[in-house]
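Hi all, long-time lurker, first post. I run a small reading group and we've been trying to get comfortable going from sequence to structure in the token notation. Rather than ask abstract questions, I figured I'd post a concrete chain and ask someone more experienced to write out its structure so we can walk through it together at our next meeting. Sequence below, copied exactly:
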Amino acid sequence: MTVLTGVMTGGVLLIIALIVIRFYDAPLPLPAEIVLPDGAAATAFTQGDGWYAIVTDDNRILIYDRVTGQLEQTIAVR
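-- Answer (accepted) --
Happy to help. Here is the structure in token form:
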């Protein structure tokens, strides 16, 4: 019974440590201003290593380079 309690306590502590480590990483900073094409409004946002993407209300995904802030790719959703 004592061993089981120790293993369960260790497991809970491990899970808490993994959650803290996972959420400790702060997201990379974004540019102060993101310029969207005329008439487009942002509806969603996501980011990855070296890029970020914005989904617009006119069904496009705009992929920007994180370093330069330049529009790299446009993908039509429909």
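A couple of things your group might point at:
Residues 2-24 form the longest helix (23 residues).
The radius of gyration is 21 Å.
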